[in-house]
Structure formats: C-alpha cells, structure tokens
Amino acid sequence: MEINDFVVRRAADSDAAAVADVWLRSFAAALPGVRRAHSDDRVRSWFREVVVPEQETWVATVDDSVVAMMVLDGEELDQLYLDPPWRGRGIGDRLVDLAKRRRPAGLVLWTFQVNGSARRFYERHGFVAAECTDGRRNEEREPDVRYVWCPGKRMP
Fold first, then answer.
1. Domain-located, residue 155
2. What's the total number of domains in the chain?
3. The pLDDT value given to residue 40
4. Which of 78, 93, 95, 154 could form a disulfide with 71 if both were Cys (CB 3.0 to 4.6 A apart)?
5. Is residue 154 a part of any domain in this protein?
6. What does the buried/exposed string (b/e) look like for 65-95 if buried means 16 or more CB atoms within 10 Å of the residue's CB?
7. What is the pLDDT of residues 49-79, one digit of tens each?
C-alpha cells in the first residue's frame, strides 16, 4: 500500500468507538507485559466522552476505516497509536509530521521504557529522551521516558 492510500483528518464524535478500538488493539500488541490501568469499557468511555469531543484528535483512515489515531494536548503529543496491521506503512510518520506542523515551537511526549519500537520511532523523528522515571506518576506504574522535540535547539 502506498502512503497516499490513507486520509488524515480531525476525528468526529462518530469516530470515538473506532479510535478506542485502535488504541486497545495497539496497546495489547505493543505492550503485552504492561498492566492496563482501565477496563476496555472505561477506555471506550474515556475516548467517547473526553478525548474525541474535548481534545485535538486526529485519525488516519483507509476506505473510511480508522487505522491510526493521534491526540495533541497543548504541547504534548499525548497519544499516537496504529492498528498493528498498519504499522510500517508511513502512517505514523505522517501523523508525527502533522503534530510538528501543528506545534512548531516543540513537542513533548511520554512512552514506556519497555516500548523499544516506539522509542526508536520517536528518536528517528528527532525526539530526544529528556527524563526517565520509575513509573510512580503514571497509572500503569510502569517506568517511562519523556521525550522532547525542540526544533532548532540542541538537547543535552
């Protein structure tokens, strides 16, 4: 599949269930050893009632089906998840490029330390690890890492 075979657009309220399903499938595939803090029903409710209606949520679709989602919250790239069969096709690259265009002054994000593929992906896109924690501040209680992207600035 070519990179042009998908559409990136703002999520509509009607996308909330599909967005939640992408999140659930992606989390399960990428992080099988990480304890989920909430049930599937709570995750779906959160996307339906909070994320999609109140935050800057973007989706990538193929034939009108949601295959990826991204949430920007202020300067934070808060969520970026791809349906597992759609990884490696340029969709994540395009979403990160969109995030950078939407937040040209810079971005921050968190990912779990065990998520090596996400860490390599963000590092390829110019994000630099700025802080590692023991996980006490996240609901999963999983060690995580904060990444920053500051265009035009060298990070230590």
1. no
2. 1
3. 95
4. 78
5. no
6. ebbbbbbbeeeebbbbbbbeebbebbbbebb
7. 999 999 999 999 999 999 999 999 999 999 9
